[in-house]
Amino acid sequence: MEIRVQSEAFAAGQELDTFTRRACAAGAVVSFTGVVRDVAGGLVAMEIEHYPGMTERAIAGMAEEAVRRFALVDALVIHRYGRLAPGEQIMMVATASAHRGAAFAAAEFLMDWLKSRAPFWKKELTLGAADWVAARQEDEDQLDRWRD
Predict the structure, then answer these.
(1) Residue 62's closest CA among 115, 7, 109, 15?
(2) InterPro entries, alphabetically (predicted)?
């Protein structure tokens, strides 16, 4: 299992190749890469803040839960912070398991958790404003499906 919180960009294809080689005992690998979305057409950048140490521990705990819950062979979570432009990669999740169902479910579980509970604070910068991104009910609803 690998967790990285970093400011620098990453190459999703290279990360996936490395992860897949490392998870050679798996029969399925699933990955997801999130990018900065310019919904209104006026986004200049997104600034992402976090508390070093606390963020990594929180993500590692949830990744450990995913490994246990879905019997994963391996898991990878990369999440960036700092100032990101529209189209830049924010995060990547990769999961490896014996079968595709568990790999897909684990990836969704991790993505839902990252979206709703990971300790990141996001601010959208436009030409005329800077607004913190608020929690969305849809994201909470997605997370609820994983509760025991």
Answers:
(1) 109
(2) MoaE_sf (IPR036563), Mopterin_biosynth_MoaE (IPR003448)
Flag whether pLDDT at 129 surpasses 70. yes
Query: The domain containing residue 87 runs over which residues?
Result: 2-146
Q: Is the pLDDT of residue 148 over 70?
A: no
Q: For the domain that residue 116 is a member of, what is the CATH number?
A: 3.90.1170.40
| pTM of the model as a whole | 0.92
Sign, CA torsion 2/3/8/14: positive
The token pair at 14 is: 């290279």
Distance of alpha carbon 115 from its chain centroid, rounded? 7
